[in-house]
Amino acid sequence: MAGTRFTPEREGELYTAVLGLLRDVGYDALTMDAVAARARISKATLYRQWGSKAELVVRALRCEKPVFLDEVDTGSLRGDLEAVLEMTDDDRLEQDTALMRGLMQAASGSDELHDALISQLINPETDGVDTLLRRAVARGEVAADNPALGYVPHMMIGALAARLLIENRPVDRAFLRHYVHSVVFPALGV
Rounded CA gap, 120 and 109, in Å? Predict the structure, then answer.
């Protein structure tokens, strides 16, 4: 961020305000005026620091959900994916799934939001998964030519979306654990 410097605490307060508004009103109804009022900051500062609503929202999401997948290394792919599943709780999964569903819908009408989601949320997550998979290939757990390797992120994102669409139920760790064991591991031959 150029210009005004925020303490990590103040930046966290701002991101909390952004995410609160996002959950309350959704992306389309969220305004920089409302963020400025809730966070007690000037709208000019918001635009100077983040440039756009899309950038601010995605940075708030990234701050709330930092990616550390590449730091997970239990020595096996099964252990790594189990550890990743333990990184969040069921309430957080439900909130994140609902929030992402709304954002993906909004992104279908906004190239700026779509690009920000891809570059700052999706790509770091898929890069982390790729790191776990490369380690599994290097350890000999997964064949390097396994055609499912390139689709693991698709499988995981699909699990999140399909649970809501097909069953109209929130995603929880039990569902994800069963999905990983029933779909992802067999596809990878693990």
Answer: 18
Give me the DSSP letters along 70-122: GG---SSHHHHHHHHHTTS-HHHHHHHHHHHHHHHHHHTT-HHHHHHHIIIII
How far apart are the C-alpha atoms of 168 and 132, rounded to whole Å?
30
Give the pLDDT of residue 9.
87
Residue 2 falls inside a structural domain? no
Q: Where does the pLDDT of residue 189 fall: very low under 50, low under 70, confident under 90, or very high at 90 and above?
A: very high
Instruction: Say whether 29 sits in a helix, a strand or coil.
Output: coil
Q: Measured at the alpha carbon of residue 158, what is the angle toward residues 156 and 164, in degrees to the nearest 5?
A: 115
CATH of the domain at 114: 1.10.357.10
Measure Cα distances from 176 to 159, 171, 180 in Å: 8, 7, 6
Q: What is the pTM of this model?
A: 0.77
DSSP state of 4: S
